[in-house]
Amino acid sequence: MIRIRRNGQAVFIFMALVALSIALPGHYALAALVPTDAAADSAGAADARGRVMQSLAREDVRAALAAQGLDPDEVQARVASLTDAEVQQIAGQLDQLPAGGNGWAAAVLVLVIVLLVILILKVSGHLR
What is the per-residue pLDDT across 116-125, written as a single tens digit (0 to 9) for each? Predict the structure, then answer.
């Protein structure tokens, strides 16, 4: 009889703890459907960012940035901090360039990227 009482007490304590854990409010995960355009935008932004970074890795672009007095690694860091919309806009401009390489269009694109980076540097206080 004493043995049953001791075992019964352990079971009672266990059941009391289970009931208490069920009664406490819990945090529930909220699941929702993700719209297709939102999922496509995030994938497109990553692709656009890769294309812009690939363009900045080219030697002629790095030389043009160095000629303007900008560190190419810092420019890449600044491009990495751009919003998805800004990166997609720049990638769209890259896509519109002719395949053969129009020198003026490439120079204008590099100039736009450099001016954008300079603007970001001035706003962030790194450039006076």
Answer: 888 888 888 8
Are the CB atoms for 65 and 112 separated by under 8 Å?
no
* Domain span at 109: 29-124
Total tally of structural domains belonging to the chain:
1
Its pTM stands at: 0.46
CB 52 within 8 A of CB 90: yes
The angle subtended at Cα 21 by Cα 16 and Cα 24, nearest 5°, is 120
Residue that is written with structure tokens 């990553």 in the block? 46
Hey, what are 107's tokens? 């120079």
Express each pLDDT in 68-91 by its tens digit: 888 888 888 888 888 888 888 888
User: Three-class SS of residue 128?
Assistant: coil
Q: What whole-number distance in Å separates Cα of residue 112 and Cα of residue 120?
A: 12
> Cα–Cα–Cα angle for 75, 54, 63, nearest 5°?
55
